[in-house]
Amino acid sequence: MDLLNLARTCKSLRQLLMVKSSAFVWKAARRQIDGLPDCPADLTEPEYANLVFYPRCQICGKYAKAVLWEMRRRYCLGCTVRRLSALSSCPQVVQNNNVVASEDTALTEGVTKSCVDKDQMESFIHEYKHSSNRKQFVMDRVEQHTTISKHARQCERWEGYQEYKYHVEMHDRRKERENSIIERLKQLGFEREVEYFTPYRIAESCKTLFWKFKPLTSKEWNQLLPKTLKTMNSFRSKRLESVVYRSRRKLLASEYANYIMHPLPNAPALDIFPYVVDVASFSTFRDIIKAPEDTQISLESAFAELPELVGKWREKLDTEFAELVKIPSHLSRAGVSSDRAVASSGNTGLAPSQTAMDKLRLACALFRVDSMGLFSYPEVLFISNMAYSKFPTYDEHDLRCNGSIQDRYCIEYIVEAPYVVHACGLDPNVATVEDMDRRNARLKCLSCEDSCVRHWRAAVWHAFYFHRWPMWQPKVPRLQLVSDEHLAAELSLKEELDQDLFRCLLCLPRVGGAIDHSSITDHLMDE
């Protein structure tokens, strides 16, 4: 390549190097190239060197990587299309005899054909027509083509080997750069991340840094370091979650299950304990889980603080659920004494003298979980499918669910409940469950053709389940209170709400602790 460039520097040098007597210079330069076939008889040494080493189109001078070895040509894509012709379009003497060099080339996208050089083909046809002995002429050209073809195959093998050596060299350079980067990452304290995720995966995430062939310089390293640190810290977080925090959460889940199922004699008397997901989110437990990797952890001190933590959790939960209870202002009965007012009509906030539990004791404070039925608070938290999040993870011990309990478990306030309480003749802002049970009213649905008489709870469920469509657009229930004199006659058509769920009294009360009939035996055997 240097000799070719030298021949192009000035006219005098070109004339000197292109004369036949200078062939020894070209031969000496060529023999320094390992494995390169000798110069063929149909080319001069300068022509051969130009074909092999000069990466430019012989017609237009554009970059051209591929060499057409049999044709002794190097064309760019555009000139390939213009200068070549399909062998099938040539005269029969060319098609039936190997007299013109041919190459398998794609002249159109996706279609590869055997092609010949138009100039070479036309030159052969011209000589063939003017030949005095055409048969001998064809035989000579076949022999010549065979020699050229044999040399072309040697050149193709040499070219393939050169490409292989180039790829090996580039691979070695990239590997050397990768080793240098990995060593620097280990020096920065990311040795465990490298071992856990492997250098290959790290390189895939930092291609800008890894996928180069030149040696890594300090300047380049300093430029890419901030972005690299961000990526490696992300890997560290993933590794800690998978290797360290996950095992600690498993330990928490195991010890908490034992705490619930085998309560100590001095266990605090609380009406409900949180699900383990919420326990893991308590700051005391979270700090232990997220403690440095080499720290020997113990949950004993955290469990000692659990009653206080549960108390704060319960206060927050009471407020959140109380905010869900909304009672329309027009349902308030006139004449109710102010000292009995519990809910503030027309808004979701709490009255100055009102606590969250006051509001949650109202008869209309009813909730549902999925399609499990109606539940008051805190009974709604015991439902067995509360253990499964609305957005479940593949690992039940992951314990990283986000959001409130209402969002996680699809808990919904039944907005039809205040209307049912009002239809029974009581003020939903005041009436408690005990008031409604003492009233013991029965109602008929005026929107249905059936004549079923329903207890107030069943009436709430009926209004929600059968007359809310679409589900996000509640409708005002059309209900009729059955008078006392007709009540006895119609009780035979009554419809009650079936809720066959139980809670184990041997365990501490816990979110998601309710058990259906089919699971009681398995639970007691676990005990």
Record the SSE blueprint.
Blueprint: H1 2-7, H2 11-18, H3 23-30, H4 45-53, H5 77-83, E1 84-86, H6 92-96, E2 102-108, E3 111-117, H7 118-129, H8 134-187, H9 191-205, H10 207-210, H11 218-261, H12 276-281, H13 283-289, H14 300-304, H15 306-324, H16 356-360, E4 367-369, E5 374-375, H17 405-408, E6 411-413, H18 417-423, H19 433-439, E7 442-445, E8 453-455, H20 456-467, E9 479-481, H21 484-490, E10 494-495, E11 501-503, E12 514-516, H22 520-526
Parallel strand pairs: 8-10
Antiparallel strand pairs: 1-3, 2-3, 4-5, 4-6, 7-8, 7-9, 11-12
Helix pairs in contact: 8-9, 9-11
Description:
This is F-box domain-containing protein. The protein is an alpha+beta fold and 527 residues long. Among the domains are: 141 residues, no CATH class; 224 residues, no CATH class. Helix content is 49%, strand content 8%. It has 22 helices and 12 strands. The strands form 4 sheets. A 4-stranded mixed sheet has the order 9-7-8-10. It has a 3-stranded antiparallel sheet with strand order 1-3-2. α8 packs antiparallel against α9 and α9 packs across α11. It is elongated and about 130 Å long. The two termini are 85 Å apart. About 5% of the residues have low confidence.
Supply database-style keywords.
3-stranded antiparallel β-sheet, 22 helices, 527 residues, F-box domain-containing protein, elongated, alpha+beta
